[in-house]
Amino acid sequence: MNQRLHHLDANNVNFPDLAFSLSEPNGLLAVGGDLSPARLIAAYQQGIFPWYGDNDPIMWWSPEPRAIISIDELRINRSLRKAIKKNPFEITLNQDFTAVTQWCADAPFRDGDTWILPEMESAYLALHKLGYAHSIEVWRLDDSANKILVGGLYGIAINGYFSGESMFYKEANASKFALVALAQLLHTVDISFIDCQLLNPFLQEMGAKEVPRSTFINLLNKAKEKVLSHDFWQARQLTIS
Fold this sequence. Notes:
The chain is of the alpha+beta class.
């Protein structure tokens, strides 16, 4: 690892200037620190997020370019639209955050490992309890009307800014349903984009694109100014169309 990397001070939650990451691969900004709520909130307020594997130090990123989904550019192809019309799932908000993060952690990351380590699960659960981390759950009802979790996603919200962290699916289209539900929920309060952090084929299929980090920061700062009602993220059932 580059020895010039900024090492975070354990006694404060300040991050280096974002320009520091331009000289590092993929926007690696800093290493070290902790996953305390104060540090995580300070990070997400600047569009910085942690991402690291087992036995690695905590690594903090601010990629250039940045992946986002513009809500009005969300791509729902013909087969997905047909699936939505069949209404095969029940979709909820913030009804089982812990289960969603656990299922996301089971998804392989690198060499069969996961990047959502136990300490990260605990850290995001703490943010959830503070009202900053939220989940979308996708359920299948079995023959006895029992709900089985088959997909979902979670992320961090600061006012009108939402940064998606991870998603999972156990049935076809379940994670797509979660993403559509999130996008349509945010659209109801005129939030214009979802931060996807890094582009991948699934997100690209759903309409994600890369923008310069300067563009992303402008969008982030504008989104943070939008204060949502106190009950916006309350646990409830969602519908999509």
